[in-house]
Specification:
Layout lengths: L5 H12 L3 H10 L4 H9 L18 H13 L9 H4 L1 H7 L2 H13 L4 E5 L15 E5 L2 E12 L6 E7 L12 E7 L5 E5 L8 E12 L3 E2 L5 H37 L1 E2 L2 E2 L4 H29 L5 H26 L10 H9 L8 H12 L7
Parallel strand pairs: 1-4
Antiparallel strand pairs: 2-3, 3-7, 4-5, 5-8, 6-7, 9-10
Length: 379
Amino acid sequence: MAETFPEIRDAMRKLCAGFPGVYWRALDRERAYPGEFVRALTEAGFLSVLIPEEYGGSGLPLGAAAAILEEIHRSGGNGAACHAQMYTMGVVLKHGSADQKQAYLPRIAAGELRLQAFGVTEEAAGTDTTRIETSARRDGDRYIVNGRKLWISRAEHSDLMVLLARTAPRDEEKPSAGLSVFLVDLKSKGIEVRPVRTMLNHATTEIFLDGVEVPAENLIGTEGQGFRHILDGMNAERILIAAESLGDGRFFVERASEYAKSREVFGRPIGQNQGVQFPIARAYVQVEAAARMVEHALSLEAEGEAFGTEANLAKLVASEAAWFAADVCLQTHGGAGFAEDYDIERKFREARLYQTAPISTNLILSHVATQVLGLPKSF
């Protein structure tokens, strides 16, 4: 099947060629942020592809962003350092006021501001977003925010954060009501960002908010309707994560195939053995099948149709295909796969994340069971 956005993909491959495995290995070793890579993407205009032209972006569809992120991962890199800048600004674009769009989007498109932090998750609530406890209390022309967020990536490298907080007590009959979205300056007094070291180099943090003053004009959309406002961004995120998983899957299949052709044991290439061939072939089939699901979800989004279920399905099948391909690639390389210099072990760790985040596989299965198949809810 022909590639989507071939010119963008070609340009991305050329840019990524300047950031080979040795670059990413050094960052992974030190848990350092890929600032040089993010600057290159920004200067080339790749991080502003979804921002409308009137605000300084390219005004391209979500499929363009998916192509960019897929190629980053297929090259051996990782787009998690900046992918939120693509989908997080969608909350401002779709639900922000005219003044908010004019004040922030041109500066984000130009690279003057970074909007890469999405402040939703909390330790006690987990994926039950309606139970978050971070509160925002109206006080004149401002809101006073108190609470704690966990697993928030890139906060140390972002100027702004889209924050979800409670502005009204939780109602058991309408648990998603009473949540509101704010655009928060991360340099505000009362904000403390603490790094959380994980198995991945994703600049993960915990954020403490103690009496943080947020101007009322930074409320995005309608107070109390924040949960609905962020759903669009979450669905777009799931498609883009699926695209990253496709890139990972193709990276693993290509690396496994190359190694199987060149590595000789017992006087013959190991790829001549069906025991090695078949798993790689199956990985290829699964990745290509997942690609069709991602394309379907993107087509629905582009047509303005409901695409939440399809976004979830795309994320599930692509992440599972990538994880299967990762295991096959590591097994094909044998002991060499555990050595840093091959980049397999790093990408292996990175691919595993998307079984868990931004939404776990089990929650997607629950959505399909109850919302698609009509089975009774388990929670």
